[in-house]
Amino acid sequence: MGGEDAIHGGVRRRGLTFRRNDFFPEESFKSWENYARAIMDTPWRLKDRVLSRSEDHTEIVEMKARSSHEMKKTLNWWDLMWFGIGAVIGSGIFVLTGLEARTEVGPAVVLSYVVSGVSALFSVFCYTEFAVEIPVAGGSFAYLRVELGEFVAFIAAGNILLEYVVSGAAVARSWTSYFATLCGHHPDDFRIVVHKMNPDYGHLDPISIGVLIAITILAVYSTKGSSIFNFIATIFHLIVIAFIIIAGLTKANTENYTPFMPFGVRGVFKASAVLFFAYVGFDAVSTMAEETKNPARDIPIGLVGSMVITTFAYCSLAVTLCLMQSYTDIDPDAPYSVAFSAVGMDWAKYIVAFGALKGMTTVLLVSAVGQARYLTHIARTHMMPPWFAHVDEKTGTPVNATISMLAATAVIAFFTNLNILSNLLSISTLFIFMLVAVALLVRRYYSSGVTTKGNKVKLILCLVLILGSSCGISGYWAISDGWIGYAVFVPLWILGTGGLWLCVPQAKQPKLWGVPLVPWLPSLSIAINIFLLGSIDKDSFIRFGVWTGFLLVYYVLLGLHASYDTAKGFESQKSSVDVDKHWNKVEEGAKGEVPLTPVTTH
């Protein structure tokens, strides 16, 4: 047991401990001399681990075995669909519709939701195949570890965590705005304005911290009835949405739809990049695969069904808002409540505000559960300290991961403006969805020992063409209103995708459920996600680059060595188990005079 405990790095220890071995139990961190040797070996360790790919069996069996208990398979497609709707609706429509309609796109915000919804649907298809084939709690982190290797998975994992922290902060700040409206105040009245600070960071929000503390307590101590709570809250949410549409359309004024596209086509796509935030949440449903009774049937119906319903609801709500009020008058903080006040239905704003608060509370709770599950799975690999993987024996929840993630969320929510949060979040989301689509193409067209060297070279060339042409289309869109760039890059995208389709045989077919129209649909998902990335402002990319740079430094100094030691420890343990099994067979065979055969360890 001693060796196992060392490898698990304290995952099964009880209580909230803060000893060094709870964070860095690996051999490289036992002493400063060991760490110095590890740093000196960094180039060799990078070579060993950067492109190291996990296996389906490792993620499905061995990684799950590192948890104290198996997750119960209690969910079906109905649960997943409601979980998806509950996780998504509320974080987008009640937060960003007003902001983008007023400043970026006008009444054509409905088209922005369609573009984002189609892009998200393509990503849903990619996630669904992975979730069916690799039904584990790690979600996209596990998928990328299997197909693109440890390093890409780690960078994606860091951005997944950033996505959850930023989305929680954005929703918590909007919660404050709607609470102020419910109390009869201006949406910004309950914030503390520090005039000497940058306006993007000087509107301090103490209420958001209180909300996140309450959510933390719920996430840590009250998960038993989470499915029932989510179902009831989502039903209530849909009733509020139906009320907004019906009551709002009774006050519709078609003149508010003129001009329909005041900021042009560019505004539609620029807004769609930010409104992609409205669809964040469906990826959390993929982490429920480990608890699904029949993944091959339930996950496709649940994920695709929730996405279609969500997109329809978003488009209907966007149309209603812009028919009720001119886009120039829409309030960016609490658009629906203020819109009802403007058309003489002041009482209705309280229903809207209360429904929005209920929806946002559900989104925060689901997000808290999902992000803790992600961090726990990442910590099991030791890319993050295994302290975060601790599951409390009494509550059965990842207490350390939950509290840590929500503490980071609270700090950002306290200071940061919603506009900065939404743009930064969309970069992380689009980046991860693009990587998952690339991973799907790699999964279908490359298999070690099956794909020939020639086909491997063709695959790499096609992927370079797809990614390069997609970046070219996105970059040209950002800097020019012409058409010459599209005449160059679109044919290159078709060449890359068509070349993959015609010249590279698929090395692996999905066993249970597969994305249709491969490679066209995943390639289109890559192109759309990269295209939407080109519509995001420069400052957000700078912040994204700083965060990714921090992840690189962390990986080289800490994550790499922890992962290397853990991998070698498990390889050694596995070899020892194999040897023991072999000699047991030898001993049994000796009784029957079976000749001995040599054994080698690796």
From TrEMBL:
Transmembrane segments: 80-99, 105-130, 151-172, 203-221, 228-249, 269-289, 301-327, 347-376, 397-418, 424-446, 458-477, 483-504, 516-536, 542-564
UniProt cross-references to InterPro entries, sorted A to Z: AA/rel_permease1, CAT_C
Chief localization: membrane
Keyword list, A-Z: Amino-acid transport, Membrane, Transmembrane, Transmembrane helix, Transport
UniProt membrane topology term: Multi-pass membrane protein
Gene3D superfamilies: Amino acid/polyamine transporter I (1.20.1740.10)
Pfam families: AA_permease_2, AA_permease_C
Residue ranges of every copy of the Cationic amino acid transporter C-terminal domain listed in the record: 513-563
Localisation per UniProt entry: Membrane
Entry similarity comment: Belongs to the amino acid-polyamine-organocation (APC) superfamily. Cationic amino acid transporter (CAT) (TC 2.A.3.3) family.
Protein name per its UniProtKB record: Cationic amino acid transporter C-terminal domain-containing protein
